[in-house]
Amino acid sequence: MESISRKERKENSCFNYEKRRLLEGYLLGKQGYPKIKKRSQLARIFGCDRKTIYNEIKRGLVEHTRSDLSTVWEYNADYAQLDADWENTSRGRPLKLGKDFILCEKIHHLIVEKHYSPYAVIEYFKHNGWSTKTRMCEKTLYNWVNAEHIPKVSRTALANKGVKYRAKGSTRRFSRTKCAERSIDTRPKEVEERKTFGHWELDTIQGGKNTPTDCLFTMTERKRSKGKRKTRAYQGSKKQAWYGKIR
Q1: Do 31 and 23 contact (CB within 8 A), yes or no?
Q2: Which residues pair with 204 in a beta bridge?
Q3: Residue 141: CB atoms within 10 Å
Q4: Which residue in 90, 119, 95, 91 sits closest to 107, CA to CA?
């Protein structure tokens, strides 16, 4: 039995904004490009199927008005890019949240009105029961808040107003370069083994939104058990401090 040959998909056949600008230049003869209208020739130039060129031109057709008030349909790369971006918003699987308006109202009440953090919201549902059948973890809830998928709930409603949020792929910036040069990953190996006394771990815990500006400062010695620590809580100014006992 003879095998039926299938048409292989050409690589990089999808159009992006750069390719759309180039296609506009060929169709209208702009930016020093020769005016080319043949779909088969354009397909060879872009390395795609002729049907792809037809679909792309159809997507970007816009009615332009000339100086004599006559109209003409021409390809516009900016309009085609806007249409492509809008169509791409419906890609992927639907949100787990869906049309669960009851859960949205409950999350809005806890975060905006009661000033709960996403972690506190998840713990509230675990102890008091979920409002609906929809379930999510802390990371998922943070993603929904950052993307504003929940009505009237955004990063500004959080305790730190979203200052720690960093978009995927963005470059991390440090206010103090010297602090960024020394990472916890570069600490000596003997610290990881927990055999030498005198290596301390420091951390701070900040209060919630619309609460007093108190800060809990923790110090943990790595050689001892994890439960033994020394704490310091600042009451307003730096001079007023309370030192906890080592348990």
Answers
A1: no
A2: 217
A3: 22
A4: 119
Bridging pattern class, strands 200-206 and 215-221: antiparallel
How many CB atoms lie under 10 A from the CB of residue 107? 25
Neighbours of 217 (CB within 10 A): 16
Q: Three-state SS string across 100-137, please?
A: CHHHHHHHHHHHHHCCCCHHHHHHHHHHHCCCCCCCCC
Residue 200 phi/psi, 5-degree rounding, is -115, 145
The runs of H, that is alpha helices, within the chain are 17-28, 39-46, 50-59, 77-88, 101-108, 118-128, 138-147, 177-181, 189-193
Beta bridge partners of 74: 62
How does DSSP assign 155-218, residue by residue? GGGSTTTTTT---TTPPP--S-HHHHHS-GGGS-HHHHHT-STT-EEEEEEE--TTS---EEEE
CA–CA separation, 86 and 88 (whole Å): 5
Considering only residues 132 and 243, tell me which one the structure prediction assigns the higher pLDDT: 132
> How many CB atoms neighbour CB 105 within 10 A?
14
**Burial class of residue 79, CB neighbours in 10 A (0-12, 13-18, 19+):** middle
Packing angle, helices 50-59 and 17-28, rounded to 10: 90
Q: Kindly report, residue by residue over 11-49, the tens digit of the pLDDT.
A: 556 888 989 999 999 999 888 889 999 999 999 998 888
For residue 201, what are the β-bridge partners?
220
pTM of the model: 0.43
